[in-house]
Structure formats: C-alpha cells, structure tokens
Amino acid sequence: SQQGEEDPQALSIQEGENATMNCSYKTSINNLQWYRQNSGRGLVHLILIRSNEREKHSGRLRVTLDTSKKSSSLLITASRAADTASYFCATDNPAKNYGQNFVFGPGTRLSVLP
Amino acid sequence: DTEVTQTPKHLVMGMTNKKSLKCEQHMGHRAMYWYKQKAKKPPELMFVYSYEKLSINESVPSRFSPECPNSSLLNLHLHALQPEDSALYLCASSHVGRGARELFFGEGSRLTVL
To answer: How would you class B87 by CB atoms within 10 Å of its CB: exposed for 0-12, middle for 13-18, buried for 19 or more?
Structure first.
C-alpha cells in the first residue's frame, strides 16, 4: 500500500527554471526522504527531513515538511538537463516494524529541456 | 565504500527455471532490503532483513525465497516464476535503529520471465 503520493506525476520545464514536486502521506512518520532515479537505474538518496524539522536545504534542493497537513515539497532551483529523472518521496511508519517499512510514493517524472 | 552491488544486471528465465539474484554491501549495514519495481511505478517493499534475520515479509509469494547468509550478502532465490514477475529487482541496505536512516540502493537486476 502506498504511504506517500506525489504530484504532479509528470513535470516538464526549461533549463534554468525551478521545479516543485509535492508529496502527501497518511500516517505519522519519523522522517521523510526524497530519492532520485534515472531511467532503469537504482535510486539515489537526495535529502532527509525529520518529523521535527520544517525546512532543509542541500545545494540546489530545498525540502519542506508540514506534519499538520502530512505533506512535503521538494524544490529544485536552477534546473539542469541532468536533473531529468524520477523523484520519489519515501516515508517510514514508526508504528510498524520499528520504521523499517519504507514506503515510496508514486513519483514525479521530471523532464528538463535544454 | 558506499556501494551496493547487484548481480546479474539482466536475467531472462523460463517459468520452470531456478535462478538467484545476489546483492553485496560492505558498508557495515545490518539491514538489507529487496524491492520490486515495475515500469513507471514506485519500488514496492518485498523483504527486510535485520541482523541477518527476516524481519519483514510483505506477503510475497513463496516462489520468491530470500536468504541472508551473512551481514554483507543478500540473495533472492527464484523458482516457478510467472511472466508478471518480470520487473526491476532492487536491493538496498541501511543502518538499523530508530534514528533516521537512508537507504543505499544497488543498480538493480532486470528480470524477464518468459
């Protein structure tokens, strides 16, 4: 069953523009993570935000978390063609299996056009 | 060394074959995971091993049989698979514990069942 749900499902932007992806989830969480996946490859961890944090930055990435709305957003600034990939949020449910049950949202497919 | 290595990268098998997928990590992680990913879908959790013991089985059919022979290795034995089992199989590892943990993924084994 899915815990996180992203929108939009697909996003196409021009190089240099900002890309914003949203994730909603259903249960309480310990933390929320964002991963990136290039086509047919493994997932790469981008950033983790804990449930007691509201915003976090890493390079061109900015993540926000609103636990009252059970939602998070990932902002990629000044996008590059190399940012073209699928982006997934992942949450753990601390009430289930000590939070080992990482569940991924459906993902956003980002296309950055040169 | 921050790599998770999966072999083989590609596997084609018939429905009566027996094959195995292998995963290896040397990061000292004591949690290892198998995920299944269909095209344009998020990874779905199959199994989690914690300290070499199976801690989560997400109601996976018995034709998939996991094995964790030691803290660095994780296998997935395949027998009598169906064509709908064709997918990308991803291995991941992480530290164990209630704190924030990121998953480190391998590049996956792409399985085709004929």
So the answer is: buried
